[in-house]
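Subject: mismatched residue count in predicted assembly?

I count 554 residues in my input, but I want to confirm that the predicted structure covers every chain. Input:
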Amino acid sequence: MGRSVLLIEDEPNIIEAISFILERDGWTVRIHSEGVTALDAVARTKPDVIILDVMLPGRSGFDILRDLRKDETTADLPVLMLTARGQTKDRELASSYGVSKFMTKPFSNSEIRETVRALAEGREA
Amino acid sequence: MPTSVLTGSRIRQHRLDQGLKQADLAKAAGISASYLNLIEHNRRRIGGKLLIAISEGLGIDPQFLSEGGGARVVTGLTQLAVDADANIEVERVDEFAGRFPGWAGFLLAQQDRINALERMVGGLNDRLTHDPVLSEKMHEVLSTASAIRSTASILMETPDIAPDWRHRFHSNIDAESRRLAETSAAMAAHFDRLTRRDDRFTTPLEQLDAFFNSQGFCIDAIEQEGEAAIEKVLRSSETLASTSARDLARSRLEAYAKVAQAIPVHAFLTQARGAAFDPGVLSMQFKCDLPTIFRRLAHLPAQPDLPEIAYVECDSAGAFLLRRPAPGFPMPRFGAACPLWPLFTALTRPNLPLRDQVRVPDGKTFDAYAIAVPQEDAAFSVSPTLRAMMLLVEAEGDYADANAVGSSCRVCPLESCTARREPSVLHVT
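Triage response: the counts match. Full output below for your records.
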C-alpha cells in the first residue's frame, strides 16, 4: 500500500474534491468526519499525513491537535490544518500546539498537493 | 484671548483688536463711553438689543460676544483641537469662532459626524468579532467557496476526467453555488436586522444625553400632562434610536414627571426666585427631600431672566447618568471630569448635603450643591448603590474665596492644581 492521508473534515464536497486531487497524486485517502472519535481514527489508520479541519462536529481541531502532540506515537506526525478562520490568533494557537502547516480556505488544489507532498517528505511546507 | 471669558471682556478684546476707540463704539451703540467702560469691565450685565447694537458696531455675530451659544462653539472647537493633538492655535479659537461662525459650526458638525461614524465602525467591528451568527455564516461562506473553487479547478485541470466524475463534480458545484447564494442572502438579512435594531451605533446613554439636549430639560408636555405624555414624547423623538435608549429615557421621564406633578413649574419658579434658587430653602418651603428639589431645578426652562443652571448625576464610579451643561459651566461629554467638583466629594459622604462656591476658569462663579443618596433601603452588610447629584446656580455676585474648579484637566488652565492628573493643552495668554 502507498502512502496514506487521513482527512478529518465534515464538508462532503470538500472531502470529495481533496480526495480526488490526492488520489490522482498517488495517495490513499481515508476520511473521518467527526471530532470526538478523530484520535481513534488516527490510531487505527496510522496515516503518513493528517489534514485536519478546525470546526468539526463534537470537538475542535485545535483540541485534537493538542492531544496528538501529547501522545509520543503521534507527536511528530505531520498535520496540515485547514480552516475558514484565518485570524492571527487562530494561527498563533495552532502554532503553539505544534501544527506543521496552517492553511486557510479557500485553498488552491496545487497548494494542497504540494503541501502534503512536502510534509510527507519532511520538507519545509 | 482665553478660550472662555465674560461678555464684557469679549467686547473689549474685539474692540481693541479692531483698533476702535471706546467712544466710537459707544456712539455706534447709542450709549455713553462711561457705560461701555462699565460693561467692558463686567460691572454691568448686558444682553438683548444693546448686545446686538454693540455687535453690529463691531461687525460680528452677537452670539460670539455672549456667553451662551458662542461659548459652546468655542468650547467645542477647543475640545476638537485638543483631541486632534495637532499644532493648532488653540489660544486663538475665540477669534476664529467670532470671525468665521459658519466655518466654526461646520467644523463642529463634521466632528459630530466623524464621532458618529467612528462609533458605527467600532460597533460593526465588535459584531464581526463577537457575533456568533455572523461567525457561523462567514465560516459557511468560506467553506462553500472553497468547495466550489477546488471542484472547478479539478474540472479545468483534468481533461481526461471520467464522465461519471465530471457529472458528479458538476452536481457538487451546482449544490455548493446554491448554498453560497442562500448563505449570502442570510448574511445580508442578518445585517439588515442589526441595522434596524440599532441604526446609530451610539450607546443608550449617549442617545439619552442627546435627547435631553435636543428637547431642552423642561418639556412642556411632561409639565402639563405628567406621565400620560411620556409615550408621546418618546415616539416623537428621532434621537432615541434604540430600544435600550428609549427604556432609559422612559425611566428618566417617569422620574421627571413625578417631580413635575408634585411641584408645578410656574408655582415653583416664583418661590425659587424668592429663595435665590437655594435648594435647601426650597426643600423646606415645599416640604420635599433634596433630590426632588435638585431635579425640579434641573428641569427648569432656560430663560434669559433666570440664572444659568447646570446639573449632573453620576454613579459611584463617577460615570455621568444625566448632565445639563450650562454655557458658563461646560461638562466633558466623554472622559473624566474635574475631580474637584463637589459631586465627587458627595460620594465620600452619603446623605450629607454639601454646599460650596466654585469659580470656573473664565471667572464666573456658581453656588454648588451636591448630595449622594443610596438607591435602596438600608440592609445589614449590604453596601448601598450610590447616586450623586450636583446642582450649580450662577451666582449673583462674586465670591472672593470660591474654590477653583474646571471642566476636565485637558482643557483646564489651572496649572498649579493639586488634583491635576494630566497636563492641559491650553496656551493661556
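Strands of chain A lie at 4-8, 28-32, 49-53, 79-83, 101-104. Marking this ticket as 'not a bug'.
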